[in-house]
From TrEMBL:
Pfam families referenced in this protein's UniProt entry, alphabetically: BET, Bromodomain
Domain NET residue range list: 133-217
Bromo domain segment(s): 39-111
Species, as recorded: Nannochloropsis salina CCMP1776
Region feature (Disordered): 129-148, 211-249
Gene3D superfamilies tied to this protein: 1.20.1270.220, Bromodomain-like
Composition-biased stretches (Low complexity): 224-249
Protein name per the record: Bromo domain-containing protein
SMART domains linked to this entry: BROMO (SM00297)
SUPFAM superfamilies xref list: Bromodomain
Amino acid sequence: MFLSRKVALCLAGGGEIRVVNAMADGGLSKMYQLVQWLSNQKDVDAFLEPVDWKTLGLTDYPLVISIPMDLGTIKGRLESGHYTKHAQVAEDVRLVWNNCKTYNQEGSYLYKIADKLAGKFEEKYSKIKTEEPDGPEDENQPPSLEDKRQFRENMYRITSDQLGEIVQTLEQQCPEAIAKVGNQDEIEINIDKVAPRTFHFLANLIKSSLPDKKASAAKKQKKAAAGGAAPPASTSGSVPGSAPVPTSG
């Protein structure tokens, strides 16, 4: 089963693209997004990288903290597929806050910041625990024909930016599944050659990126009630700004 599609590999703006490599599902993609969100919070700088205790002159740090941890390390572990369950990620995130609160005096600036960020994390993580099972039943289970059909269909519904991230992940994890066709901007994805673990992660990542059907329906109803007609759904399989591309297989 093949999927061909023209995609701009060099996205406008030149911004860095952070790609979540193939990882077990079960909420790990949401955990990655949560860690990214934490990394953008106010006063989080002290937790983004390992504590440079030598430069800071904190000679007793390795004696007090036996297992150092930081958000940057957690993001790297998520990208490399180190974790298999969202609970493992949560354990490391909590370690970041606990280490800080263990080393710093209660009531100090860093202690308060760690306590505040810990509260924000737990609030958002509680939703992930409710919505997602803690890891797949079998991440190496080969996808069914229906899984592949749905994967191909959903690939035509995501944005060009999202497609670019999917392609980069495949190039890193399953390069044998990608082939150049014609010029450098056109690629062909052989779904049958995508490793099961990578397939299931990408399938769920794509699914989570699709517009909410309920929200879309509510928006159309609201527009109709206001006297406007909802635009017909596109059946060409194309993304705004790109030409439809045929599929084969």
